[in-house]
Amino acid sequence: MKYKILIILLVVAFIGCKNEEKNNPKIETEHNHTQSEPKSENKKTLSPHTSAMAMIGDAHIHIDYSSPGVRNRIIFGGLLAYDQVWQAGAHMATWLETNKDLEIDGKELKAGKYGFFVIPNQEEWTVIFNRNWNQHGKDDYTENDDVLRFKVIPKISEEIKEHLEYKVNKTTETSGTISMSWEKVTIEFPFEIK
Questions:
Q1: Which residues of the chain have pLDDT under 70?
Q2: Basic and acidic residues bias: where (predicted)?
């Protein structure tokens, strides 16, 4: 009998608390406030999502990437170790899409969408096109999925490029260049439309 009375008292107390919470807007507001803080709309994105593209003849070349900032850091040989694969952007792997076959470094890159990776080095960089374009960073990167690899010599500048930037430049109706610049380094390579 004691247990039944105790259970009834607990149920009544619980219902009473719930009714007070419903009838007191201050309690409800405070409760909602602790659930989620409003996000500041003035907060600047550290690595904005952006793209570079160009039409060269009938070829449409599109590079999609997130653009991290230098923010007073040493990037190459510091934040990004030399001789290790990097997704050439922030967050998701950078990708390149072309609707026409390209010739790069004397090799064919078939029309399609590819992950774009690099291996930075002080002397030369390895540029990589990988069939796995949809991956976070380099988490799922595997060399077995590479479809094209070649070397380029980096150009070093005294001026700092604060945010990573890609450019696709038209040089003729059937050729162009792709460049990537960040911190004090620029790499660039030519391509031909097949």
A1: 1-43
A2: 24-44
Pairing of strands 112-119, 155-172: unpaired
Asked, for residue 3, whether it belongs to a domain, the answer is no
Q: Which domain holds residue 109?
A: 49-193
Cα end-to-end span (Å), the chain: 90
In a domain, 36, yes or no: no
Report the C-alpha gap between 61 and 78 in whole angstroms: 31
- Rounded Cα distance, 194 and 191, in Å: 9
Query: pTM of the prediction?
Result: 0.76
Number of domains in the chain: 1
Q: Is residue 55 part of a domain?
A: yes
Q: What is the pLDDT of residue 45?
A: 81
Establish if 28 belongs to a structural domain: no
Residue 30: what residue type?
E
